[in-house]
Amino acid sequence: MPPKDTRQFIAALKRTGDLVEVNREVDWDLEVGAIVRRLNESQGPAALFNKVKDYPEGYRILGGPLGTFRRVAVAMGLPPETPTRELRDEFERRMAAPIKPTLIRREDAPCKQNVLTGEDADLFRFPAPMPHDGDGGRYILTWGAVIARDPDTGWVNWGMYRVMVYNFHIITAQHQPFTDHWSIVQKYFARGKPAPVVIAISMDPMSTLMAMTPIPRGVDECEFAGGLLEEPVELVKAELSDIPVPAHAEIIIEAELTSPNFRLIEGPFGEFTGYRSSPRAPRNAYMVKAVTFRNDPILTVSNMGVPVDDGHIGMSLGMGWDIKKRLQGAGVPITDVYMPPEAAGLICVVGVRPLYNGIAAQVGNIIGMAATNIPPHIIVVEDDVDPFNMQEVIHALGTKCHPLRGITIRPREAATPLTPFLSLEERKWAIGPKAIYDCTWPLEWSRETEVPPKVSFENVYAIKEKVLKNWASDGFASPSGL
Ligand SMILES: Cc1cc2nc3c(=O)[nH]c(=O)nc-3n(C[C@H](O)[C@H](O)[C@H](O)COP(=O)(O)O)c2cc1C
Ligand SMILES: [Mn+2]
């Protein structure tokens, strides 16, 4: 069974050897961040910090929850060594079968074990880390959900937004304009009303993964989390609003965005691209109204930066899922889609069956229509290349993509303002170019005289079968696959 809260997830990671416990006292000020960062960059295990400076015994930090595909497998209740493609296939199967949440009683909800309101709702009770040297403050949410309810339809949205502690009862956050969360908040502002918002930290790992996944507008992320968990997510009503909150989260912050003009300083922050690319600036501020939390709360921390971290793994699965669905929905003859986590969400590889000319351009058009944080580099390969196999993809890019005919530039697309290669002006207006690399042979080239034959074991040897038959008895190991 997939773990249904952070504690079960920690126990599962311990069993599979994917967690190291740190029992000496560590500092929330940079030390936790530095350790998690180094683990990310070396694809190391998750870390459980059992003693955090200045905080009571029992207040722990889980660092790097989903920083490897192995840990995603554990979170899905699969064997940790599940190959990436199989893991992704199972992810897609479960995403196709969402399950509606259930509402449980307040007294059964662990997140209500402690309830503090007013002045007592003090954010410094929790060991929010200063994640990177150079960050503008302590970040209480680096891996969690910001939850809001559409005032027109009742639809409940979960999105992931970094949240900085401004002072003991004010938080600041940065919202990219195209997100669902921001569209909901705007509706309250249009009516001159404050927007009630709930922040959930340390939910079960699948719920958190759904908060960062581009689920279509109007659909609840929470139902997909249920699909991935293969059972309903349990929710409970918030203390001060009618927003349902995840009952097994470790920490819940209930807050209010009072007006679009209530802006206080936020950032900078070491971002998912592996750079610090957005400035310290006034951004939206939320007033904290209540905090509720489990006894001995465990804060989950992701430390974004140079790949590979939890966000990159999550984007590979979540954004890959969204793009693949869009391409399939448009009837493009694709073989598969893979977003290599090493490219921090900025490269998407699309495999196609080259049935007609111009498929690469069509792929670019459709991905360009996604109102989401979309990759600026799209590599289109044909069906002799496995999009999951970077050795094959990089070979195709080098050998099949004509630098003039093969690269299509879409000069002014919606872009994330965090994209490091954009000019300051482009970042400010969230606009930038996109490149599509066509690594398919032109259909009009003669297969006999123009397309050069690929000199691979698979392609050129008539005696392939004989070699394969004797391979193991000759003493060779199977070539490592994915
Ligand atoms: C670790 C992490 C932090 C993120 N922080 C932000 C952020 O601060 N602001 C933002 O606009 N998007 C951020 N994102 C991207 C959004 O979570 C993503 O676009 C999500 O789909 C938004 O959900 P929504 O449109 O349902 O609100 C972050 C993603 C990850 C993985
Ligand atoms: Mn959404």
Write up what this structure looks like.
The structure is a single chain. The protein folds into 2 domains: 6-301, Pnp Oxidase, Chain A; 330-460, UbiD C-terminal domain-like. Strands 5, 6, 7, 8, 9, 10, 11, 14, 15 and 16 form a 10-stranded antiparallel sheet that branches. Strands 18-19-20-22-21 form a 5-stranded mixed sheet. Strand 7 (144-149) and strand 8 form a beta hairpin. The protein has 13 helices and 22 strands. It is an alpha+beta fold. The site of manganese (II) ion has 5 residues, from strand 8.
Unreliable stretches (pLDDT < 50, length at least 5) are none
Quantity of strands, as a count: 22
Give the number of domains. Answer: 2
Q: Roughly how many Å is the radius of gyration?
A: 24 Å
What proportion of the residues form beta strands (DSSP E)?
Answer: 25-35%
What is the C-level CATH assignment of the largest domain? Mainly Beta
Separation of the first and last Cα atoms: 24 Å
Q: Could you name the CATH topology of the largest domain?
A: Pnp Oxidase, Chain A
Shape, please? globular
CATH homologous superfamily grouping of the largest domain: Electron Transport, Fmn-binding Protein, Chain A
Q: Structural class, from helix and strand content?
A: alpha+beta
Mean pLDDT: 96
CATH architecture of the largest domain: Roll
